[in-house]
UniProtKB/TrEMBL annotation, chains A, B, C, D:
Residues 5-65 form the HTH tetR-type domain. Pfam families: TetR_C_4, TetR_N. This is TetR/AcrR family transcriptional regulator. InterPro entries: Homeodomain-like_sf (IPR009057), HTH-type_Tx_Regulator (IPR050624), HTH_TetR (IPR001647), Tet_transcr_reg_TetR-rel_C_sf (IPR036271), Tscrpt_reg_YsiA_C (IPR013570). PROSITE patterns: HTH_TETR_2. It comes from Kurthia populi. Residues 28-47 bind DNA. The keyword Hydrolase does not apply.
DNA sequence: TATGAATGAGGATTCATTCAT
DNA sequence: GATGAATGAATCCTCATTCAT
């Protein structure tokens, strides 16, 4: 599998650095190749085209969020606790990697509709897990029975996303993780039964 | 004042159509000029450069949201009622113009950091009005006293934005306006005292 | 005659200022019109096109050189004295108008071949007068009999021109007029019998 | 070193031909690329921008003049002989390449101030060698002791330049090289002791 | 005469991708 | 697998000139 080859990872990491430090529109393939320490042409042995690099970057980084959330969902806890852990986990991953937020919240959003559609398909795996928590909460009677799952999830993700983007745009100057309890409280109030 | 000249408006409207129908990266100045029924050079009598067109488009369209919200804020009603009207107004404006959502939710987000920074400055006028409603609600005892205004606003705007984007990406197939009551209920639960 | 109309002169003078202060390639017709205090379109009531303005500027300014030289040539003096006066006169005119040198020595030389050809035609009136002095000198036995008039004139004009250009490029910092005696000596040695 | 790559030279030579045959303002990069037999983009692997091409053209061609003059200066001859050889060499180089004079005397002079400044810096290498000959002549007692070196050089270069330009503008119809002895005589008379 | 809004042709440059080595 | 020189399509903006008023 291509993802296991060392150069694949090398190029992905280089792309994150180049995009974060130069911005989406200044992240030329040649710059990524240089950062990765390979020739321009080598990129095309591992990626179909530039679009493929960008999508792979998102996929690679999103996997961290998804894997952690999967662990949370699989635990034997209440939906409210899972919601809380989810928010904390999301903010924790962003806090741990300065480049990540710049890339996911600002730069990759400048990509064109086609790339964004593929990014959304990847994001769906994450959103589905949030839905799962919400369904668990409804079934357990923790969350309101007549709640629109999709809407609730859009509220949760929209809020987390907006807060994260705001934090990135403020140069990550404040403690994002410290906001988790207040975000949790706000969101829980909206959905609890 | 330039905005009162008919051609200024003509070009703005042409830009919205061209961007919505061709996409951000295929919205060439010459295409906008043709759509507006003017010569390419005429564009530059009304706009400094292409960036200026895009920012002006956002400014012009955002003004509709802001003006309507200002009216709502100025009314003699409870903060909860204003929140409700705000959500309805937001969805109403989006519903009334098929092109608008494509431009604000999808296409203009592909613009570079400089344009986005200017877009955010315009957006701030809208966010400030939401903050105003929240402050009014807290002062009147309708909303929780210890509520973080900024966080609550990020929750509200993040949710509305996410719902709207989702509606646009689903080709505006369902009735966005019909979602307003449920969105209102969800958000109000999160902040009411 | 168009040259006697006040606006004609107004535009010529404006052109000299605009060219000197902005450079040839930044001397747009609209800038000249603004400096002259007329509308863009008005320019075209007095000049056929932009080229015509530039040529007229050269013609107008060159007339000063030519008229003064004509007076010198018509005097009852030796050719050597006339040569001396000519050099002094040339440097004097340049010294008297700071803008003139910038326009004639640097900026107008950036014009295209067609304009330069017309400029050369105007210059010919000046060169012919130099030839006249040289012929007088040869006839009077002051200058070498076997001298090639055209070559001698090219030497004289080439030297004066090179010295003047050098003075302009050194920001007219030194006293050009003070060089006249040495230039005269150098050139006279080359041609005297 | 870039100058040793065949394509660098290819492009320089193509630029000379295109400029000479089409004129400075009609010498588009794409035309130069086509003449050089390379793609437009290839130009930019060897030159920073169009300005860089033009300056490089002048530099490359001026090197011929400078190298030949350096050889002359280094010889064990009198300053007068060197002056004579210099004039002959200058006219010889111009005579050998029909395109060269058009480019150096007419077309490149239409370039803007920035390019001209860089061209003048290159030209300085040539002028310095003329100064060297003059200093040698003064020291050896061949040229006048109280002579102003700079002025004498301006006279020499101004004359050669004027004669050459005149020859180019007359479509190189007469024998430029045949003028060398008379030019030499004229200039030598001006400076010899 | 005078105005000035409108016109529209024209070109340098970037960069994702290829392919001979 | 790896290289990197070469490709070439694609677009924003300027400004001389016109002409309806």
């Amino acid at each position: 599998m291509r993802k296991e080859k060392p150069k694949y990872k090398q190029i992905i990491d280089a792309a994150v650095i180049v995009i974060a430090e130069n911005g989406y529109h200044q992240a030329q393939v040649s710059k990524i190749a240089k950062q990765a320490g390979v020739a321009d042409g080598t990129i095309y042995l591992y990626f179909k085209n530039k679009e493929d690099i960008l999508i792979s970057v998102f996929e690679d980084k999103m996997a961290v969020f998804i894997n952690r959330l999967q662990v949370i969902v699989d635990r034997n806890e209440t939906a409210s606790e899972k919601l809380q852990k989810m928010i904390e986990s999301h903010f924790k991953v962003q806090t741990d990697n300065k480049h990540l937020g710049i890339v996911t919240q600002l730069e990759l959003r400048q990509s064109n509709i086609e790339v964004r559609a593929k990014i959304n398909a990847i994001l769906k795996g994450y959103l589905d897990l949030i839905d799962e928590i919400l369904r668990q909460g409804v079934n357990a009677g923790d969350f309101r029975a007549n709640m629109d799952i999709r809407l609730a999830r859009q509220c949760i993700f929209g809020t987390i996303d907006e807060v994260t983007t705001s934090w990135v745009m403020k140069d990550q100057k404040f403690d994002l993780l410290a906001l988790a309890p207040k975000v949790y409280e706000l969101l829980l109030n909206g959905i609890k039964s």
